[in-house]
Amino acid sequence: MRVTCPCCGERDYGEFSIYGDASRQRPHIDDTDFEAWYDYVYIRPNPKGRHQEFWHHIQGCRQWLVVDRDTVTHEVYGVALARDVVTLPDAPAATPEEAK
Amino acid sequence: MAQSCRIPQGGRVRHDAPATFTFDGKSYQGLQGDTLASALLANGVHLVSRSFKYHRPRGIYAAGAEEPNALVGLREGARAEPNALATTVELYDGLIAKSQNNWPSLQFDVSEVNSLFQRFLSAGFYYKTFIGPFEKSWMWYEHIIRRAAGMGEASTEPDPDHYEKVYKFCDVLVVGSGPAGLAAALAAGRAGARVLLAEQEAELGGSLLSAPKGSASDAWLTAALGELEKLQNVEIMPRTFVWGAYDHGNYTLLEKVADHKPQPDEHEVRQRSIVLQTGRVVVAAGALERPIPFGNNDRPGIMLAGAARTYVNRYGVLPGKRAVVFTNNDSAYEAALDLKAAGVDVTIVDARAKAPEQLAAACASALIEVMSGHAVVGANGRMRVTSADVARFDTASGSSGDVVRQIPCDLICVSGGWNPVVHLSSQRGRRPEFDSRLASFVPGDPPDNQHHAGAMVGAFSDAAAATSGFEAGADAAQQAGANKSSSTLATDGLGDADWELPLVPVWDVKPGEQVKKRKRFVDFQHDVGVSDVELAHTEGYVSVEHLKRYTTLGMAADQGKTSNITGLALMAELTGKTIPETGTTTFRPPYNSVSFGAISGQQTGQHFRPLRRTPVHDWNLKNGAEMINVGAWQRAWYYPKAGEDVNAAYIRETEEVRETCGMVDVTTLGKIEVQGPDAAEFLNRVYVNGWKLLKPGRARYGVMLRDDGLVFDDGTTSRLSDTHYFMTTTTAEAGPVMAHLEWLLQCCWTDLKVHVTSITDQYSGLAVAGPNSRALLQEVFADIDFSSEEFPFMGVRETEYQGMPVRVFRISFSGELAYEVATPSGFGEAIWQAIYDAGPNHGLGLYGTEALGALRVEKGHFAGAEIDGRTSVEDLGLGRMPSTKKQFVGSVMRQREGVQDENRPRYVGLEPVNPQESLRGGALVHTHNGPHSGHGLGHVSSTTYSPALGRFIGLGFVEGGLERYEGQLVDVCYPLKGWVVTCKVVSSHFYDPAGEKQNG
Amino acid sequence: MTHYSWFSVFAKALGGNKGWDRAWRDPEPKAAYDVIIVGGGGHGLATAYYLAKEHGITNVAVLEKGWLGGGNTGRNTTIIRSNYMIDGNTHFYEKSLKLWEGLSKDLNYNAMVSHRKIYNLFHSPSQMEGFAKRYNIMRSCGIDGEILNREEVMKVLPYLDYSPNARFPVYGAASQPRAGTARHDAVAWGYARGADMRGVDLIQNCEVTGYQRDASGAVVGVQTTRGDIKAKKVGIAVAGHTSQLAEMAGLNLPIESHLLQAFVSEPYKPLIDTVITFGAGHFYISQSDKGGLVFGGDLDGYNSFAQRGNFHLIDHLLPEGKAMVPCLSRLRFQRTWGGIMDMTMDGSPIICKSPVDGLYINGGWCYGGFKATPGSGWCFAHTIANDRPHEFNSKLTLDRFRRGYALDEKGAGPMPGWH
């Protein structure tokens, strides 16, 4: 497989370390909702088809990328720097004590 | 010795360059340009091997990589190469080959007795037998069966040859150098594309080389090659086959650099693995002729018609004197006419009711008898065919009549049609399509970046192949970004005769009622016959994959190149389904088999994996250190003095540290610079404990968790300035921690202004530990005040030593007063040497990882054996460490009941009740005097003989930990050796539990 | 149904091998069954077999989208072993190995179960301690296991690299004598024939496209490409596609599908008569009865349903083989293939009732599915028949992740691709 790193150009997948699903929203660090964390840490949509995934250009620029790739054909539809595309979660609503 | 079957001055071989070779110990002469197969045939040798199961005598059946029979052992000793294909081995002077899979000899093979029982040894018989009488009876049968199975014998010596792997890039890869491939390379080359033309044989030309020497096509070939050689942008790679087609234009090739020599020249590699990245690919891999099953169709002297033609025209060899050519198509007529022209008596047996008129006329004028509407129903002769039984045949029903004639012959040439080489397309996941006109599978629409040309798309005449190749090459070049070439291709001299289509397939010649029943083979190498396919059908193994797996059809070393399609056509017939409904199996890499050596390339021996060296690696070697592998690193294990083994050395080293001081290389620890205005917040999230109050000039120990709340890694991190921290990690997790931090910053917390930079390789580290370490370092780094007031435990100082920047950390892994010194790697040895030089006055010794381990176990510090990816902070006895004032990675998931379960094994110290007894890591902890069974209470993770305590001690985990077991007895069991040591559960802090020494 | 034996082979051969029965029938699906097993691989077929044999439940259909044994059952490296240390895995795999021992006789089908030993090489004292722990646990649980030092390994595996040229010298090996190999296809076929004989309908070319649910949401049947079929209970055993079959029932699982390649060499005369794993990498090898060296290693590293791998893995793997057994250098591999692995978040499998009534899950086999085949079928059948797990699979639950009881043999954490 070849992936076009936004920093380094087209490279072999062997230069990357692949971290898997990038479609899940990581809860805010201060979010203490167990279900949110459980879903995030353990549950995977595991689609047969297009899959957003984190790739780390570990033997190149060390940038994390979000790769849009088909898990059946391995076709790559797009690559972006993760920092450009990830969204930050909302901070959890303050608990009553904190609000005081 | 005379080459009895060589045509004087015939073929394209070098009659001026003889080569002597031996086969089964007997010496023969061949010519340069021969393959081993053609040289054997030149000497009248047809019998070259024995089959897999029945040990039937077998001859040379093909003239290329599709050969199912002629597997031989090549070379001797450490260079022995089993299963070499005689049809692709280039002859060289001194070649040594021997036949395989026979005993005592090829001519008289005892195991041929198997063929007498062949009906009992039908497909899958072994699934129905060898079952009893006992549960493990198979173990006994297997022993015998395995010896009978297998083909060639491998050498057990290491390979003396060298290999390499290289990476290449091109715009257009052209696979094959027949007329289609050459034309494709010309078109793409003229357009200016970077072209790589790969040809598996030594000589370029493909099928053109099988035409009689002096044919009109020779001039076309010479011109094409001449032009290609002049094109700077075309790289021609003979002896190179394309074996794998992977995602996104990644192709793998094998170049047989020196296989045509007795051994590689000095500094030459034997084979080269090429990983190619290409824009487009023109696959012009041709087609393989397919056999027709008839009785005893495997006898030596029976071969593919195209192969016979190749032997005559290319190699100048007469594969027989009296030939029967059995065909259902026009292509074999070329072979018949060329054989006849070379002086062979030929009879054509054509299954079709009527041969095309033009061919019939040509045969008539060449005095070749054509028996249309007939088939060869059986071959006679055992070690060599002696005659062919011919009967009337009806292509519509596939049935034959009585034998009408027995034609004496020593050669039967067979052509059942041609199977396009769909491998590289199939490897890309494209299901081949059945073309009923060709009665064959064709690749269908080319997958991803492929273009297909020549015989593989049904362009069988040379001219049509060249034209299709030229178009494909031009298209490929254009799509790879080159200009569209306006040039045209001359096809003068290339034959353009079309074959009669649709082809009338003959999948099987069923013998008539009165005809002797003989085995009709489909897969020669695996001895799979028509009857085996029928049996699979009878028993319900009707899907093509079941057929393949039950009968082993197509699973031999040739991967069914000549047999797959016939097999599935037979199954289609039996099930009453069409061939497309029946489907086909998938071709997978490699096209031809590929050696471990080639893929390994330079990655062998000490170069198998890169070696990570610390800056004092050479110094350590010079100073007599014994080294040990730690991951990819090598570290000093111990520094033996005369007569010391590892135990004596580490005990002395440990004592030196405890009594005076010692120095150890700790470069391998992960080192990460964490910088930026949000660095403190970042560390606060990464570590379980708080970081916001840490002042510059101070270090703190931290533990980080994974998202699941279990411990990931630990280490100290120092604050060098308001916005600059220096993190250390364990050796093993240096890489993963760095990747984790980058992930958090780039994918999770993009709002934090923090940069992380790994300086593990850029900084060296050493530790000086022991009561004298302060005085020693004070002497070396005079700028720093090392007094305990000015430089307390967990303090950090920066200075320069003779212009070299140095960071000094007062941290301790040994429990002694100790410091770590970091400096850029280029200065690592100089700083080490400076401290070493100042050492003698302070009793400085050196210590390695063994003593390092002993010291930390005495102190009760945990390491990799304890942080094994399954432990929680509570398990490690750090339950009070996680901050309750903030959230951090893993803070929610660590609250799960299973992680907090108080029955989890928790960190403890263990000491044998009898101080004379020893402990070993990996032992289990069981209840004292209780049953020593099951998973037990926990395990022993690290042990050492403690010089300080004069006894063995251990660290480990016990259910409920100290809270439940402190002071109690447990049995430490090592059932692998039958050891049981009763131990007392104690605190893990064996040495200086109050920490007076490190804090002093 | 003909009993298989030398006698039957001779008798039928004398009749021209025409008189053999089909190994299993090719029935049309009925309108309803007591139990439907989705997935006609080794695990599904074994489940059906044990439902019939152990629990007397014979009104069972196995629905297979393609051909029996066409998934990972037919794509693995055929190794069987029970050298697991985590409580929850150890006894389960040992049960499986015990079933392997009598399997050919039980099925009257020679699955060529060969207890030819496994050797797990280690290359440092600390690695040895890791293996010692694992093998001590096995021994403590009544499972066979041994530990060998370098000299002992040299005697039994003389062809490894003991030269000064070895980058990672062999320090020793742990060994399980009862481990070995089995003929993978025969396992599927043997179970298929055994289940069929007991009345189970094996229905090929029948893809499940959805579930029938009742008002309470319970699964009461399946929709297939060959029509709707009712069932009191539906079990899925479709490792590789467990996520897809679960999603049809609204379940999201802690599973990712990954790609694992495997390899076979040309046939050679016996060279490696055991199973060996390399400790300085991830490479394992054995030799089939036919003579092919069967080997494999790590996942390719990306999510995939392609059953087609890439070269980088091969490039990484084969040097490990040569580093371990230098004489492999001149030997050649002739076929590579790929399978889809259900990788769970702790590297251990799932056999349990699902949160949806009437639906049972068997999956998440990571790359250890083949060796588990008999035990998996046995435990799954027990779970389906009794609506509760057997002791052997009591910890292989779906809720272990939620509750924090991961069974992490490797300690890699919730990263499916790293197990």
Structure keywords:
heterotrimer; A: 100 residues; alpha+beta; 4-stranded antiparallel beta sheet; two-stranded antiparallel ribbon; 3 helices; C: 419 residues; alpha/beta; globular
Task: Explain what this protein looks like in three dimensions.
The complex is a heterotrimer of chains A (100), B (1000) and C (419). In chain A, 17% of the residues lie in helices and 33% in strands. Chain A is built from 3 helices and 6 strands. A 4-stranded antiparallel β-sheet of chain A has the order 3-4-5-6. A two-stranded antiparallel ribbon of chain A has the order 1-2. In chain A, β1 and β2 form a beta hairpin. In chain B, 23% of the residues lie in helices and 28% in strands. In chain B, strands 8, 9, 10, 11, 12, 13 and 26 form a 7-stranded mixed β-sheet that branches. In chain B, strands 39-40-41-38-32-42 form a 6-stranded mixed β-sheet, with helices on both faces. In chain B, strands 43-46-45-44-47-48 form a 6-stranded antiparallel beta barrel. The longest helix of chain B has 18 residues. Chain B starts with 13 loop residues before the first strand and ends with a helix. Chain B is elongated, with a radius of gyration of 38 Å. In chain C, α2 packs parallel to α7 and α3 packs across α10. Chain C is globular. The relative contact order of chain C is 0.18. In chain C, the strands form 3 sheets. In chain C, strands 1, 2, 8, 9, 10, 11, 17 and 18 form an 8-stranded mixed β-sheet that branches. An 8-stranded mixed β-sheet of chain C has the order 5-6-4-13-14-15-12-16. The chains are: A alpha+beta (100), B alpha+beta (1000), C alpha/beta (419). Chains in contact: A-B, A-C, B-C. β29 of chain B pairs antiparallel with β16 of chain C.
Q: Quick summary of this structure?
A:
With 100 residues, chain A is of the alpha+beta class. Chain A has helices at 34-42, 82-85, 96-99, and strands spanning 2-5, 9-12, 17-21, 50-56, 64-70, 76-81. Helices cover 28% and strands 26% of the residues of chain C.
